[in-house]
Design brief:
The chain is mainly alpha-helical and 472 residues long. It has 21 helices and five strands. The protein folds into two domains: 315 residues, no CATH class; 127 residues, no CATH class. The chain has a five-stranded mixed β-sheet, sandwiched between helices. Strand 1, helix 18 and strand 2 form a beta-alpha-beta unit.
Length: 472
């Protein structure tokens, strides 16, 4: 880094973070964001008054929780501000990684700018960079790993590869293949050094997870796999779900998705195709429906970094004017759609997460236990003892679904849910739209009486109904 770079970095980085912060919504877009925030609070306080479990139980990304906790401990006043700041930094990190990717391919500044604009403006990229979760950081780190692999920076690749599985477990195939590519053909000594560097980065997170939860790895995917029980469904349905979700995401990511066409002609790109295939196969086996959730938040970190690399490869062979034209056309199209787009579903849902939690805080007795399907918002805004029937924050629920739900492909989920409700002595039930009817029916079949106390506003498509839960 030159002496001229430092002043630009010192001035430019805070400005970039401030700009990204303004692009980030005031409220987290997804309920799961508040699981990370709650875990960060538990990490700092040493006590979980809501679920009564260690900080990392139910956490997908320990590094992201550590980042949010660091921001809270540094004096960030509110939880939503901490999430916004964490996402703003992730957005800047992704933009920097894309820019560096262009540098490693010797793209001109105009082509690099076009690449960055297309990467940010395609599909729901900005939405996923600012969804309140670790998504942006995962996209940034994998993009950086790809760039470092292409640039021949093996130790940097090792550091990224060691961290990626703990930032997002479904990026483990990508981390492994990028590391193998970077190590291929190197001296035995350097290969050993690369492995050692990756291990040094990974071990602290392994030890922390083991010490805090008793498990070496996060159990969030397993909990969802058992509860939703999609993995044991017909392979034709699973294939259609994975292919449909992936195809839809790729179509919406146009023109960034044009990068897919260039991946096959490059060794790093071919490694990316294999990594994507392995990750999608894992979802096919365990939880195919996940790929369609949360504006494709699972798919974007798997796909977008490789599409950026592919498009960067393509830009090495096209005129700068062509790249700029594509970028300008995309921006103009997006700006034109701003005036006609009236759907505020994500914003309305974010407000509903807050208001439903606050309603529980105001109307449910302080000594009550609330059975919940979504464990995030209630942990931040409700301040009541809660039981997560999916199992992310309540490990005993995982055991119930392992015993009844998974072996029957979901047919005996009611037995598991009823057992969880009885053993927890829950007296209230908070149900998410879409799951409200089946879960209510299962609880009634198990001998419970459900009295609705609070329903979501009429203008909210996805919201929460709160029931009083009584044994008949």
């Amino acid at each position: 880094m030159t002496t001229k770079t430092w002043p630009a970095l010192v001035v430019g980085l805070p400005l970039a973070v401030a700009g990204a912060f303004m692009l980030t919504p005031h409220l987290a877009r997804l309920d799961d964001s508040y699981i990370a925030l709650h875990s960060a609070r538990v990490l700092l306080s040493g006590d979980d008054p809501v679920f009564g479990v260690p900080a990392l139980v139910g956490v997908t990304s320990p590094p992201y929780v550590a980042l949010v906790a660091a921001m809270l401990s540094a004096g960030v006043r509110t939880g939503d501000t901490a999430l916004r700041l964490a996402n703003a930094c992730g957005l800047v990190a992704f933009a920097a990684a894309v820019w560096y990717l262009g540098l490693t391919l010797a793209l001109t500044s105009g082509r690099r700018l076009s690449l960055l604009v297309i990467a940010l403006a395609s599909g729901a990229t900005v939405f996923n960079l600012t969804n309140g979760l670790e998504t942006g950081w995962a996209m940034a780190l994998l993009t950086a790993a790809i760039a470092c692999a292409h640039a021949g920076r093996p130790i940097s690749v090792s550091v990224c590869a060691g961290l990626l599985p703990f930032l997002r477990p479904d990026l483990t195939p990508a981390a492994g293949l990028v590391l193998v590519y970077a190590a291929w053909g190197r001296s035995r000594r350097l290969q050993h050094g690369m492995v050692a560097a990756a291990v040094v980065v990974a071990v602290p997170w392994l030890i922390w997870m083991r010490a805090d939860t008793g498990s070496w790895l996060t159990q969030t995917i397993r909990a969802k796999q058992l509860f939703y029980a999609q993995g044991c469904g017909p392979w034709t349905w699973k294939l259609a779900a994975v292919a449909g979700s992936t195809g839809s995401a790729i179509a919406k990511l146009f023109p960034l998705s044009l990068g897919l066409l260039a991946l096959g002609g490059n060794r790093v790109g071919r490694a990316g195709i294999v990594a994507v295939a392995i990750s999608l196969s894992a979802y096919f086996i365990a939880y195919p429906g996940a790929l369609a959730l949360g504006y494709s938040r699972y798919l974007y970190p798997i796909l977008v970094p490789w599409l950026c690399f592919g498009l960067a490869l393509a830009f090495t062979r096209v005129e700068a004017g062509v790249a700029a034209t594509v970028a300008i056309a995309l921006v103009v199209t997006r700006l034109a759609l701003v005036g006609v787009r009236t759907d505020d579903s994500s914003g309305a849902y974010a407000r509903e997460v807050v208001s439903s939690g606050e309603w529980i805080d105001a109307h449910v007795p302080s000594d009550a236990v609330v059975l919940v399907h979504d464990a995030g918002g209630v942990s931040e805004f409700a301040h009541r003892r809660a039981v997560d029937l999916v199992g992310l924050k309540t490990p005993t629920s995982v055991a119930a679904h392992e015993r009844w739900t998974w072996p029957t492909c979901g047919r005996a989920r009611g037995t598991a849910v009823g057992t969880i409700a009885r053993e927890s002595r829950a007296s209230y039930f908070m149900a998410l739209s879409g799951w409200e009817e089946p879960l209510r029916a299962e609880l009634e079949a198990e001998g419970f009486l459900l009295t609705p106390l609070r329903r979501p506003p009429d203008d909210v498509r996805t919201g929460y109904t709160v029931y009083r839960l009584e044994r008949r």
